[in-house]
């Protein structure tokens, strides 16, 4: 019976991980049902609490490596900078991409994030890399400054008689980062204070690409786990989700088709956005086994938007909250901007290298609130990590939240201190103790994009 087999696998997992301090649980916190169950006394380890449980075990046992034994699944968490270096730089072949965990982002096509290690990933990386060129970074600077001007103007319009401005940081940062990535990635212009074109879908409904993008970001997991027919049921909420994915997909395909090289004006207008640079690199590879299919172009375009929008929005939201609680940091950032501006009214793209403290605020926010709690690798064979045996098939997770607050690497680790990352203190940061973009060959391809956007 399945339950009996589960019990056998459960005992096997516990046995294989018996030498690593940790805990065990018969119900898988990463399973579909457990994702929906809130934490409770009988199930302390759920999807919402697993990282807190792991960090608590590390503190309890005074160790950097802990385990979680589950039926048919073994998980090992680490908060050690040396372990992270081993996994990402020194011995990456012993800790490979755990592709099973990334199927959720394949819904629009295979992409650089979900591709397994080896020739397939190298093909995606070779063609996506030119998209993140200095020309695109220049476009990112220009777009970010322009969209920030629009957002500030919109905020000014809400000022009341007492001079108070009330903002919705979560909503505004989401709209801002979506507007930036949409324009810098594939030339779609919208954002705060900008008129948007409605994308018609269905006889009595219209949905903008911006609205569709927000729904896709929020409901991606729901769309992946439910069959297509569910989104045609007589439920307005489900139909809205289904329509959003259709609008999003159709718009991306339409934009890709519009970049036909025969259309010189279109190519010139968007020649430095991510999509144009990706398509250019792909055309140059046409006829070889290295080129990407239409589906893979679609999948990578989705990843540019999804990874570059939701994560940065969350970081900026936290940054605003931290600055609200630390007026001294606000004052220091304001002073730096005044010094950089001089007699000018607006920042220029070339000012970024001088915004040392502003970039440090973004980095310190990522330290305290990383965009993702962990990245898990797969041990394809029996191996070791820091001299400790790791069984084949174990998922080995770099616990970013724990390493970023490890007292071994950070003085007063829970305090907001942006000066840690200023240029003059760069030598004090322990290598591999700050890894919000992961590290090594499979580190985030858009990390310079994100840091530039965040600082500005």
Automatic annotation (TrEMBL):
<dbReference type="GO" id="GO:0004497">
    <property type="term" value="F:monooxygenase activity"/>
</dbReference>
<dbReference type="GO" id="GO:0020037">
    <property type="term" value="F:heme binding"/>
</dbReference>
<feature type="binding site" description="axial binding residue">
    <location>
        <position position="444"/>
    </location>
    <ligand>
        <name>heme</name>
    </ligand>
</feature>
<dbReference type="GO" id="GO:0005506">
    <property type="term" value="F:iron ion binding"/>
</dbReference>
<protein>
    <recommendedName>
        <fullName>Cytochrome P450</fullName>
    </recommendedName>
</protein>
<dbReference type="InterPro" id="IPR002401">
    <property type="entry name" value="Cyt_P450_E_grp-I"/>
</dbReference>
<comment type="similarity">
    <text>Belongs to the cytochrome P450 family.</text>
</comment>
<keyword id="KW-0503">Monooxygenase</keyword>
<dbReference type="InterPro" id="IPR036396">
    <property type="entry name" value="Cyt_P450_sf"/>
</dbReference>
<keyword id="KW-0349">Heme</keyword>
<keyword id="KW-0408">Iron</keyword>
<dbReference type="GO" id="GO:0016705">
    <property type="term" value="F:oxidoreductase activity, acting on paired donors, with incorporation or reduction of molecular oxygen"/>
</dbReference>
<dbReference type="InterPro" id="IPR017972">
    <property type="entry name" value="Cyt_P450_CS"/>
</dbReference>
<dbReference type="InterPro" id="IPR001128">
    <property type="entry name" value="Cyt_P450"/>
</dbReference>
<keyword id="KW-0479">Metal-binding</keyword>
<dbReference type="InterPro" id="IPR050196">
    <property type="entry name" value="Cytochrome_P450_Monoox"/>
</dbReference>
<keyword id="KW-0560">Oxidoreductase</keyword>
<dbReference type="Pfam" id="PF00067">
    <property type="entry name" value="p450"/>
</dbReference>
